[in-house]
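RECORD TYPE: inverse folding
INPUT: structure tokens
STRUCTURE:
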């Protein structure tokens, strides 16, 4: 799989290259980036045919699709934080796959823009109706897939000091790396929710995974690599991590740039270091260390204290209307920053459907006061040590 890529998308790029027109691939890629719906732009026929042939449309009433998107509607701010503070640094820890990002300077020099674009793809796909005929999700996934093919061509065609080292890294954006990335958007998110104390039902986990498996099909992931269930997704993730996790200067540089972008995109200084604490919570300790994510005692203590208040453990989320306030406030500040960004004059603005964003706002409730922090500390230190049956009685 490391020497297999995406024949259909690569064939489109090859057809563009074979025209002999210098710069056509770059112009097509820029058109895909600049236009909200590239099908309305002036594109070669081979590209238009690709969009027609790779569109996998789902009816909006599929039970698993509705449930998977409902998970995002309810936990969207937390999921976006997990993507930024868990999925991305976990991807940077893959010492061979990360070379594509470093080689194309996709994230180190344009970290905030790429963070916005990744988030927009998730919102497009997981919003209600996003994977239907009129939804934004299918088109966004198709566009990213074709851009990956263009990036592969650019990497492999580069000569001289920046030439792609195929013997060392295999092919760029190969099937193993694509499957690993798909798992960061799906299983890693489920694991992150669990680590935050947000416990989904088995059906919810399965539905959320199924949504991403469908997106993986649209994006050209080999069907043999798609897990059949959540347990297989966990096994696939662990297998790829055993093969790929390792120290690289590129991974460290990208993680450092991401941390700076997250601090920069949350207004003021109150949440500075909060993303570091979340990364430390999510990532294995050795991975956090070699990615040079600093330990922030105060912020880590706050995350530790608020964990029991974030999730639905023992019904606490229903009993305490301020349960997710601190983490959600951090998430919403980041989301508001995304909404304010216009991605350049010619770029479409970042879009979150109104019903999602307003719902996330309503569930944020009011800010935490000193008494809330005291209660959180007592509950964490004392109540959390009691047997589960007693904790349930106290919560009730």
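DESIGNED SEQUENCE:
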């Amino acid at each position: 799989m490391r020497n297999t890529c995406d024949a259909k998308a690569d064939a489109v790029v090859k057809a563009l290259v074979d025209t002999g027109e210098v710069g056509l691939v770059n112009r097509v890629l820029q058109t895909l980036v600049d236009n909200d719906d590239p099908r309305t732009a002036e594109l070669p026929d081979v590209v238009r045919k690709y969009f027609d042939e790779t569109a996998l449309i789902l009816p909006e009433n599929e039970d698993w699709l509705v449930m998977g998107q409902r998970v995002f509607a309810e936990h969207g701010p937390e999921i976006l934080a997990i993507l930024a503070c868990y999925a991305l640094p976990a991807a940077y820890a893959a010492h061979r796959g990360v070379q594509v990002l470093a080689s194309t300077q996709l994230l180190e020099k344009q970290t905030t823009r790429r963070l916005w674009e990744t988030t927009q793809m998730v919102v497009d796909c997981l919003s209600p109706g996003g994977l239907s005929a009129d939804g934004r999700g299918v088109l966004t996934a198709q566009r990213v897939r074709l851009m990956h093919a263009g990036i592969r061509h650019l990497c492999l065609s580069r000569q001289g000091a920046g030439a792609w080292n195929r013997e060392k890294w295999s092919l760029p954006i190969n099937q193993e790396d694509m499957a690993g990335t798909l798992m960061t958007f799906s299983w890693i998110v489920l694991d992150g929710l669990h680590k935050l104390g947000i416990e989904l039902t088995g059906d919810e986990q399965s539905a959320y995974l199924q949504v991403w498996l469908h997106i993986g099909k649209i994006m050209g992931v080999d069907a043999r690599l798609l897990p059949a269930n959540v347990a297989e997704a966990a096994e696939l993730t662990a297998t790829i991590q055993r093969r790929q996790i390792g120290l690289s200067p590129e991974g460290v540089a990208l993680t450092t740039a991401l941390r700076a972008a997250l601090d920069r995109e949350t207004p003021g200084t109150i949440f500075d270091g909060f993303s570091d604490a979340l990364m430390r919570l999510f990532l294995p300790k050795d991975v956090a260390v070699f990615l040079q994510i600093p330990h922030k005692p105060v912020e880590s203590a706050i995350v530790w204290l608020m964990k029991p208040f974030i999730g639905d453990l023992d019904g606490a989320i229903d009993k305490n209307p301020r349960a997710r306030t601190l983490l959600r406030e951090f998430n919403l500040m980041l989301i508001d920053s995304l909404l304010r960004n216009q991605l350049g004059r010619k770029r479409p603005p970042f879009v979150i459907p109104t019903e999602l964003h307003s719902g996330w706002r309503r569930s944020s409730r009011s800010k935490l006061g000193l008494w809330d922090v005291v209660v959180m500390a007592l509950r964490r230190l004392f109540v959390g040590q009691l047997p589960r049956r007693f904790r349930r009685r106290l919560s009730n």
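NOTES: DSSP finds 21 helices and no strands in the chain.
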